Fold this protein.
Amino acid sequence: MNRTARSRIDPTRRSQGRPPDPPHRCHARGCTTEVAARLLMCRKHWRMVPRDLQRGVWAHYVDGQEVRKDPTPEYLEAADRAIDAVAEKEAALA
């Protein structure tokens, strides 16, 4: 196999013995929109999060935490505040 062929990643191959990851969904309550694993919410709901809470989520995000499944307690707390903020806004609109 030549160097170019070895360096290519075959997107159809998974790690042997590892099941595919389930889809990652927006964490806003009741939302089923699929989002990239590194994102907390879909665009619609993220835009409802106040800027200071958005900054808090990103300040505590650690690159790759979604792959390792090891978010910090600070990230989880910031995420919970963002999720609560969206829930409050949606309840006020109902």
